Fold this protein.
Amino acid sequence: MDNKDTVLEDMSTYTAAKQEISKKIESDQALTLRFKFINEELLMLLNSITAKLLSKMDFIFLLNSTITILREIVVNALKANAKRVFFKKAGLDISNENDYEKGMTRFKEEVIGVFDVIERDLVTSEYYIQLHFQIKEGNLFIRIINNVPIIKEELERINLRMTKAAQYNDFGEVYEEIEDSTEGAGLGIVLTVLFLKSMGIPPSKFTIKSEGGLTYTTLVIPKILRPVEITTEVKTHILHEIEGIPTFPENIIQLQRLCNDPESSIEEIARRIKVDPALTTDVIKLSNSAGFVPGKRIENIHEAVMTIGLKNLNAILVASNARRILDKRYSKFEQIWEHCNKTAYYARNIALSYRLTSIVEYSFMAGLLHDLGKIILLATDMTLVKRIANMVENRKIVTSTIMEEISIGISHSSIGAMISEKWNFPPFLIEAIRCHHAPLNSTRQHRDIVFVVYLANMFCGIEDRRYNYTYCEDSVLERFGLNDEKKFTELHAKLKFKYSSTRQ
């Protein structure tokens, strides 16, 4: 792909392209792909590229919206090429007003929705689609080019739709005004503009123009999604929230010191934990959730300490106290903690499977705490979040962390890193929390633990149908010998079965 396009024609080309693409993304090089037809395999490849690029920017929360927009643009480009092929084959002049009306009626009936019928003609034609991706100065530039010009009537309709969409916040507000009888009314253009506005991206970052027989559609995802005054206000609010969070109490700090002291006795540590009934319950509960001894249930604190060891106990103490502080300050978020338990279990077992003995306990701790930022995000003053949403012309409905991240333009990973720095967590843990969605941003020193937590989190995300195998960073898959999807699926199934066994 250096100084030339990658032509995607069959699955063997896709496989080779994926390997080259991963190298370019990791080294911040531009990507250029060129193809003539689109099938589901190619769309999944584009999803994968989008996921990897947004991960590098710590904007993974924009993934679904960006994929929706990108698919719409690519399908529009394919549609434009298909029209030219169809008109030419039908002996119609696309620039002739009468022929255009006649041809579009037939095109809608015979091709729209069933592009397969024209696949062979497209593949053998001179028409192509070219995609260009590049992260430059922190901004993601996406350009889609197809080698057909936009005719005057089409350009007028596009400009009308984009202008109308930029004026409104709700899809229903513009539907009636822009509906016409051509190509499904081009409502995808409106949807794209409204998506961008909800993402905090000005509509001006999305442009369509025609020059020299080519059509250029450009989308820029800026490194700052919101106006500076909004971003500053939100970050200031979050920093105040974090400043107000108490540090670990002295009894936990003393227990941590004992765990790190080779002269400490298990009896002394168990006795100190027993003084705090809530802590005792947490340690036993987390010890069982980690499944240290498959098939055996830990019933008391002495047995827990004996079974899990002092390093793992230290990890549980940190996670338990973090939960207690956040649950006391905010509403309880059991769903997030349950996800963290599973991620920690998966991370520990991945580290064990690959004999990464030096980071097994660290992986467990990082998994337990990787989503700390979600608690703060969900607990952020809803009045503030709704007001910010209104300022950026977003809907005032905040239903998930994704909506909140989009509304305020900061990721839960970044918020989690702020909390972990406040609590003086060790560097490996701060980095695992900050990079659990962006493993390529990690330093070489802590890369293994970041990769382990990332992979564990991806497995959980796949179970929740948020991700799939193609979204995974190839560098991570290569590190664990999982470039073969079958091996990836086998490891996932093994972890899932073991975890479910601990829940019985």
